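Predict the 3D structure for this chain.
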Amino acid sequence: MNPNLPILLAFELQQKQTAALRILCIRHGIQLVKADPAQYGETIGVLCGMDEPTGAVADAALSEPMLLFANMTMAAVQKFLNEAKAAKFSRPSLMAMLTETNRNWTPLGLYEQLAEERIMVREKMQSIHARSGHHHHEHEQEHAHGEGEGEPAHES
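Done. Predicted structure below.
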């Protein structure tokens, strides 16, 4: 793995999702790195090949899939995600871009941050709908967020 090239770090993907992603990554010149749960004690920087491994062991697993984009512009990520959507790829709702901050987090730390942000977004949307009297849209909005239609989090 070349840590200077575009990387898509994938966590807890099903085999079918991984196969679909691999094709898209090849098309976009992105290195697909499927994170090994045995390495979840390491930082995101280590998993992206940017930092030296420490041998740290994870104390927990992730309960759902997650993607992290490294060495890519937001425009490149958006183009990739649009193509993934067109290819009917069922993408995870938890996605982020590598930052100087989250580079030092473990996958579990990133997961917890993204899950917390997702809850805050849902609560905010429900609050907006409740104030405007559009209660019947709450389920639709929750479904949209649950399918991961948003952009990856910037600062996670």
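Residues 107-132 form the longest helix (26 residues).
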